[in-house]
Design a protein that fits this description.
By secondary structure, the protein is an alpha/beta fold. It folds into three domains: about 5-70, no CATH class; about 80-150; about 160-220, no CATH class. It is built from eight helices and eight strands. The chain has helices at about 15, 20-30, 65-70, 80-90, 95-110, 115-125, 130-150, 180; strands spanning about 5-10, 35-40, 55, 165-170, 175-180, 190-195, 200-205, 215-220. It has a three-stranded parallel sheet. It has a three-stranded antiparallel sheet with strand order 6-7-8, with no helix packed on it. The chain has a two-stranded antiparallel ribbon with strand order 4-5. Strand 6 (about 190-195) and strand 7 form a beta hairpin.
């Protein structure tokens, strides 16, 4: 329901605050960049992730709160790329859900709404009812999250030193990647072949995981594909 929604209405109270699942769902909604509207039933403080939101105090009868909620809702005709994606991901037809995963891969390739798209893919990979759909989503996740996991301010320790390489982006950030991940990736690492230093090297198009800008790296992927 969160994936397919245009906005989230949170009814917050002392009782709500005790439900751990509410916190998990709120974080998921935030990762999807959902519009969250908070209605408070009592004076229970909002959780830290919601601290910047301006709640609407609700008093019985609750009819009056609709006048305050309505202006915060998106127009019925509005639909951005992410909203279109999540609706497609929740479609009843398997082919449409798989098409949504391919669309998500294309958005990640463009570094478009990365965090929200990854959250959606995680949800599909964990909860879709069809194995082939889950596997397809996980394949994209692996391609986009494994290289990023190798980023640090210094080369990772206790790993094959020949498999690790660092690249500096135009903003000065150094990203370290593992050839075992990026040389196999087919979604987030488009590659060509380049003559570089008189040797055929793979031209890998990566993303700096500090600032997200595109990095072009020339790497010898022989033995790691």
């Amino acid at each position: 329901m969160i994936i397919g929604s245009a906005a989230i209405i949170l009814i917050w109270s002392q009782a709500t605050a005790r439900i751990a699942e509410v916190g998990r769902l709120l974080l998921f909604a935030q990762r999807l960049r959902k519009n969250i509207i908070v209605l408070t039933l009592d004076s229970t403080p909002l959780p830290t992730p919601m601290a910047t939101l301006k709640p609407i105090a609700v008093h019985r009868p609750c009819d009056h709160c609709m006048d305050q909620i309505a202006p915060l809702l998106p127009p019925a005709s509005s639909q951005d790329a992410l909203q279109a994606l999540v609706e497609r991901a929740a479609h009843e037809y398997i082919r449409e859900r798989k098409a949504a995963i391919e669309q998500a891969a294309a958005m990640l390739q463009r570094n478009e709404q990365r965090e929200a798209v990854l959250a959606l893919l995680e949800q599909i990979a964990q909860h879709d009812t069809i194995t082939s759909v889950r596997d397809k989503a996980q394949e994209i996740l692996n391609a986009y999250t494994q290289p990023a996991a190798q980023l640090s301010t210094s080369p990772p320790q206790n790993m094959d030193p020949n498999a690790i390489f660092g690249v500096r982006c135009k903003n000065g950030h150094v990203s370290y990647f593992n050839k075992r991940s990026v040389c196999k990736a087919t979604y987030d690492v488009p590659r060509g072949m380049s003559q570089h230093d008189s040797k055929n090297l793979d031209e890998l198009i990566l993303s700096c995981t500090t600032c997200g800008v595109t990095i072009v790296a020339y790497v010898d992927c022989e033995g790691y594909k």
